[in-house]
UniProtKB/TrEMBL annotation:
Protein species of origin: Pseudoalteromonas denitrificans DSM 6059
Transmembrane region(s): 28-47, 68-88, 94-113
UniProtKB keywords: Membrane, Transmembrane, Transmembrane helix
Protein name: Uncharacterized protein
Length: 133
């Protein structure tokens, strides 16, 4: 069994390994390996995020049909941004890749914000009713 700090850091270690393989050794096989590390890290992150959600089932969107694509979208955007920066030597492509990475970070921020703050806000509102009555 892994210790808790190692277990919690595994998806980020996968991301770092994938990023390192793609950027520090720009070859075809290193990019494929780095992409696979990145995809595995995103799958582990999504599985943990799904089971740790604090919002209720009713407020979630009905995304069952394309759930895997929906969950992997920010990670795929970030991965493509890294690949574009690494493989294409063009300033316009670099700007596009940077925008793609910013977009991926924004999606992740919004998902984390929506998944983990809904119940806390509701719980705080309910507690205020009891204290002010």
């Amino acid at each position: 069994m892994l210790s808790r700090p190692v277990y919690e850091s595994l998806p980020y270690l996968y991301f770092a390994a994938g990023y390192g393989l793609i950027t520090f050794e720009p070859s075809f096989f290193a990019s494929i390996s780095g992409g696979l590390f990145f995809i595995v890290g995103s799958l582990v992150w999504n599985i943990r995020s799904h089971f740790r959600r604090s919002d209720n089932e009713y407020t979630r969107h009905n995304i069952d049909r394309h759930k895997i694509l929906y969950n992997l979208k920010p990670f795929a955007c970030f991965l493509f941004g890294i690949l574009i920066i690494t493989w294409i030597d063009n300033k316009i492509a670099a700007v596009f890749a940077f925008i793609l990475c910013i977009f991926a970070g924004w999606i992740l921020f919004m998902r984390i914000n929506n998944r983990y703050t809904k119940k806390k806000k509701k719980r705080l509102r309910n507690n205020k009713k009891y204290y002010h009555s």
